Amino acid sequence: MYFNCPGQGWTSAWVTYPSFQGKVDGRMAYPACPKGYKAAYAMLIAGPDYPSITGMITFADTPAGTMVCADVRGLPEYRPAEDGKSPVGPFGFHIHEGGHCDIGDPEKPFESCGGHWNPTNQPHGNHAGDFPVLVASNGRAWMCFMTDRFTVDEITGRSVIIHENPDDYRTQPSGDSGRRIACGSIRLMDLRRDPNSAC
User: What residue ranges define each of the domains in the chain, with the CATH number in brackets?
Assistant: First the structure.
């Protein structure tokens, strides 16, 4: 699979990670970037509520901003709100301050990642790490978007969290998006093994 980056003619290609075999087909799009630009990835760890979740999030610096791509499988089916309970899905999706995806207390998984990453002290809905919700079809969510809110260097060492409930982008401090159901530590991607990359 290949796709172009806005206005630059950049592409992303499939790469196979040995530790990712059998999960999301062992493949994930990575950004092929020119010299001087960086890329990062976060491989998801499922929490105890939905242990079948797998996937990877990638980040790439581009002249137009940072390209974020998510490919997630094993998400639960949508359940509408009823009996005073919040809906399950679409799924809140954010960068969090800490970078260690330890499940810890199964009643409050991934609490070690702290709150939303918010370097400019904005109200929720305008955090640098506030992302669009993930919408799943048959358990799979795939999307890419551009942001000018951060660079790869600024988020490396932090984490991405997927939440059980949709983000309302209003409730402070975290959008009332519910339990943390998957987590991935953001790490720099080493593309030097790829002869087609100048990274």
Answer: 3-188 (2.60.40.200)
How many Cα atoms sit within 13 Å of 17 on the Cβ side?
Answer: 16
* C-alpha span between 55 and 36 (Å, rounded): 27
173 prior amide bond cis, ω within 30: yes
Through-space distance between the first and last CA atoms of the chain, rounded to whole angstroms: 20
Element spanning 155, H or E = helix 152-155
| Selection from 128, 135, 97 nearest residue 114 by Cα | 97
Global confidence as pTM: 0.78
The DSSP result for 15-78, as a single string, is EE-GGGTTSGGGEEEEE---TT--EEEEE-EE-SSSTT-EEEEEEEEETTEEEEEEEEE-PPPP
* Residues 51-100 pLDDT 10s: 999 999 999 998 889 999 999 999 999 999 888 888 888 999 999 999 99
Q: In angstroms, rounded to a whole number, what is the distance separating the alpha carbons of residues 15 and 30?
A: 7
